[in-house]
Amino acid sequence: MGFVKRTPAAPGADDQRQRPRDCAGLAQSLDDPDPAVRRWAARDLAACPDSSALLAARLAGEPERAVRQAMLLTLTELADVAAVQGLAACLRSEDVALRNDAIEAMKNLPRALPTVMADLLADDDADVRIFAVNILEALRHPEVESWLLRVIGRDPHVNVCATAVDLLGEVGSERATEALHGLKLRFPDQPYIHFAADLALRRIQGEGA
Amino acid sequence: MSEIAISSEDFGKFREFFYRQTGIHFDESKRYFVDKRLAERIELSGAETFRSYFSMLRFQSSGEELQTLTNLMTVNETYFLREDYQFKCLVASMLPEITARKRPGSLVRIWSVPSSSGEEPYSIALYLLELWPEIARWDVEIISSDIDTSILAKARAGRYSARSVQHVPAELLHKHFTALPGGEYQLSDELRQCVEFTRVNLAEPMDTRAYRNFDVVFCRNLLIYFDDLSRRKAAEVLFDALNPGGFICLGHSESMSRITSLFRVRKFPEAIVYQKPETP
Question: Does the distance separating the beta carbons of A108 and B229 come in below 8 Å?
Answer without folding.
Answer: yes
